């Protein structure tokens, strides 16, 4: 009987080798509510630890039923160069899962493949727009946004009729389609994307306000704001998550010079973007930062009614327009200490220390896109965002 031991040992060894070609990811959380389109982020160092030699173009990510999932591997915080070609130089692995109500754990596998896996269709996108002065625009499959650079703020010194707008406020582009529209709308031009030609429209008003999610320093009576962004950096760009940073030159806030770097994290399937604003200043130990929503955000001659909810960490608006539908905007600020306002903006406040990021969430939705169709639904979405923020996902990687 002893000769049988060698084949069995060989089979066991082969099985162990095969198992080493697969990593298991377990994701848990302690929120009973449904969590659609959650982005799961795993440091690639963890994948490489369990699955050495895995390459971003030769893996498959599957759910517990064996379904192939779209994935992305970013270059955010790469671990190292990879001179040996063993897949050590990547940043984070992203994929998504929709947790049902009461589903507090889900399992996934990452497997090596022999064939190349092509990129998945883009659901998020961000880029600098040199063809329109120096806008910066971003979007996911629900909604788009943009903001403005120094060229738009520059005076029209030649008398050419160039538009001049000095603001660090944030704009919204309301989509009614899931595919990317930023490139197409800029190609169509200003006179087209301000009308709904089947894909949505730019109908949000920024002007001198904070728009939807711009920041400033609040001294109890006055808001001190910066100018248009000064520089940009894209860190990841879809298909599931886009991450970029905008830097703002220092401005005077009641005698204190303050500069800001905003990091935007844009995820597919969400109505909210994650914002991390880091303010740098010297002198005071803390400053009080305000995040704003324009009080008059509707398109020209369109605003009929605006419902504003101010409660704890939530500041939301639901705007009913005369003929262009209704839309919601929201700020979720977990560390909020107060809600106030000035002549232009609703403001939600939180203290910051120099160099320490302030996290908040910026939301927008149009009823004609179909993701949110009423003020009550928008309030529920904002509450869910607050709950998601306070109950983060926990991830482990094992063989």
Radius of gyration: 24 Å
Helix content: 10-25%
Which residues form runs of ≥5 with pLDDT under 50? 1-20
SS summary, helix count: 6
Shape: globular
Euclidean distance between termini CA atoms: 33 Å
Largest sheet: 8 strands, antiparallel
Q: What is the residue-mean pLDDT, rounded to a whole number?
A: 93
What is the assembly state of the chains in this entry?
single chain
Assess the beta-strand content as a share of residues.
35-45%
Structural class: mainly beta
Spatial strand arrangement across the major sheet: 15-16-17-18-25-22-21-20
Strand elements, count: 26
What would you note in describing this structure?
- The chain has six helices and 26 strands.
- The strands form five sheets. The chain has an eight-stranded antiparallel sheet, covered by helices on one side. The chain has a five-stranded antiparallel sheet with strand order 4-3-7-1-26, covered by helices on one side. A five-stranded antiparallel sheet has the order 8-9-10-11-12, with no helix packed on it.
- A hairpin with a 3-residue loop joins strand 9 and strand 10.
- The protein starts with a helix and ends with a strand.
- 40% of the residues are buried.
């Amino acid at each position: 009987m002893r000769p049988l031991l060698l084949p069995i040992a060989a089979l066991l060894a082969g099985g162990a080798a095969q198992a080493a070609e697969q990593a298991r990811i377990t994701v848990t959380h302690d929120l009973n509510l449904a969590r659609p389109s959650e982005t799961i982020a795993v440091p690639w160092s963890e994948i490489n630890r369990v699955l050495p030699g895995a390459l971003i173009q030769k893996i498959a990510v599957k759910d517990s039923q064996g379904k192939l999932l779209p994935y992305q591997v970013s270059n955010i915080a790469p671990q190292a160069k990879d001179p040996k070609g063993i897949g050590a130089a990547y940043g984070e692995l992203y994929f998504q899962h929709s947790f049902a109500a009461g589903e507090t754990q889900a399992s996934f596998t990452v497997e090596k493949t022999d064939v190349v896996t092509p990129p998945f269709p883009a659901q998020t996108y961000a880029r600098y727009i040199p063809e329109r002065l120096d806008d910066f625009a971003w979007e996911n499959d629900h909604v788009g946004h943009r903001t403005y650079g120094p060229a738009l703020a520059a005076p029209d010194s030649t008398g050419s009729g160039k538009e001049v707008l000095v603001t660090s406020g944030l704009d919204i582009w309301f989509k009614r389609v899931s595919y990317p529209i930023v490139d197409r709308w800029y190609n169509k031009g200003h006179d087209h994307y301000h009308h709904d030609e089947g894909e949505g429209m730019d109908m949000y008003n920024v002007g001198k306000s904070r728009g939807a999610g711009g920041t400033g320093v609040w001294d109890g009576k006055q808001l001190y704001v910066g100018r248009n962004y000064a520089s940009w950096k894209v860190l990841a760009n879809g298909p599931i998550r886009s991450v970029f940073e905008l830097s703002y030159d220092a401005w005077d806030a009641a005698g204190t010079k303050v500069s800001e770097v905003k990091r935007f994290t844009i995820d597919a399937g969400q109505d909210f973007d994650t914002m991390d604003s880091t303010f740098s200043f010297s002198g005071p130990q803390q400053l009080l930062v305000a995040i704003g929503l324009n009080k008059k955000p509707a398109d020209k001659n369109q605003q009929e009614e605006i419902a504003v909810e101010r409660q704890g960490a939530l500041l939301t608006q639901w705007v009913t327009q005369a003929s262009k539908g209704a839309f919601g905007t929201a700020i979720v600020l977990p560390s909020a200490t107060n809600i106030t306002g000035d002549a232009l903006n609703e403001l939600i406040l939180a203290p910051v220390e120099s160099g320490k990021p302030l996290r908040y969430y910026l939301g927008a939705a149009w009823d004609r896109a179909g993701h949110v169709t009423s003020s009550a639904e928008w309030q529920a979405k904002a509450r869910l965002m607050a709950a998601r923020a306070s109950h983060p996902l926990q991830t482990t990687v094992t063989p």
